[in-house]
């Protein structure tokens, strides 16, 4: 922990006033999103336990699974968003990482696919969502090298990148 503080202090001292402001805001957002992740996980856990105890988890009720998986996707989206913010705080990256924004948008659209009742949804909604997934997927694929290029020029990125490699 002290090594992290030392690295943060060293990197913070070389930043401009605005970059310091950006880092402080990113840290505050990281803490707030972490709180949201804990609350969402707690709500998900209590919902699942309540359903288990009441016998409400039945394969014949897909709406229960849609609700649970929708809640899980919220946690995953928040985790990805928090990971993006942590990369700003820990590695001094810029706030907006286009690839991460596209990934979060893709997860949000996929969550919508999970929670909607396909049989009751209008065809135009389904076509729009499918087109959104396709477009976001193409953009994500096109940006696949965005995070790898800076890592190749940064000698410390190799040791950091191995602990949590991103797709």
What does the radius of gyration come to? 20 Å
Discrete helix count: 7
Could you list the spans in which at least 5 consecutive residues all have pLDDT below 50?
A: 155-167
Average pLDDT figure: 79
Strand count: 0
Number of domains: 1
Major sheet attributes: none
3D shape: flat
Query: N-to-C SSE series?
Result: HHHHHHH
Binned, the helix content reads over 70%
The first-to-last residue Cα distance is 27 Å
Oligomer: single chain
The helix-and-strand class reads mainly alpha
**Strand percentage, roughly?**
under 5%
Note down, in words, how this protein is organized.
The chain has 167 residues and is mostly helical. The protein has one domain. 77% of the residues lie in helices and 0% in strands. It is built from 7 helices and no strands. The longest helix has 38 residues, at 17-54. It is flat, with a radius of gyration of 20 Å.
């Amino acid at each position: 922990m002290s090594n992290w503080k030392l690295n943060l202090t060293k990197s913070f001292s070389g930043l401009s006033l605005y970059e310091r402001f950006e880092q402080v805001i990113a840290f505050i957002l990281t803490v707030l999103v972490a709180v949201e992740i804990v609350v969402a996980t707690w709500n998900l856990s209590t919902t699942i336990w309540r359903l288990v105890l009441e016998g409400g988890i039945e394969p014949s009720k897909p709406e229960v699974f849609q609700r649970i998986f929708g809640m899980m996707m919220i946690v995953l989206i928040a985790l990805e968003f928090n990971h993006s913010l942590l990369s700003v705080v820990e590695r001094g990256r810029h706030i907006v990482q286009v690839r991460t924004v596209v990934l979060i948008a893709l997860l949000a659209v996929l969550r919508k696919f999970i929670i909607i009742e396909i049989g009751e949804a209008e065809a135009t909604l389904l076509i729009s969502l499918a087109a959104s997934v396709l477009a976001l997927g193409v953009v994500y694929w096109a940006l696949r090298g965005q995070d790898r290029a800076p890592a190749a020029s940064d000698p410390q990125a190799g040791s950091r990148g191995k602990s949590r490699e991103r797709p």
